[in-house]
Amino acid sequence: MSETHFRYGRKRFYDNTKFPRGFAKSGDFTLAEEELLIQFGDTMLGLELGELSPENSEEKHFLKVLANPLKAKSKLERTWLKYTQLARGRKRFHTLNGSRRTSAADSLEEFDVVLEDD
């Protein structure tokens, strides 16, 4: 891991609600990302909620990234954005069927089939 001036959290960070088996075991995070979240997640959450004030330029940049995610440049910032998207964003739901319902008449029109009246 690269050297960071970000403060370590007062306690280890876990999200037992969304990731009860751990970040890495969820399949969404690498081991390195899990380590970043555990070590720095408490500080990042405190900064995000306004409970902590930034102490250095890295933490000030982190607050700018929260306002504009396209400014993320460090692995730490990208990992937090990934975490917030997965933990707070909408769950993706994949189906085997299409979302558009079609009637039998629509299906026949699609294939240029003409029904003749007797």
Automatic annotation (TrEMBL):
Lineage: superkingdom: Bacteria
Pfam families recorded: DUF413 (PF04219)
Family (UniProt): Belongs to the MaoP family.
UniProt protein name: Macrodomain Ori protein
Organism encoding this protein: Vibrio agarivorans
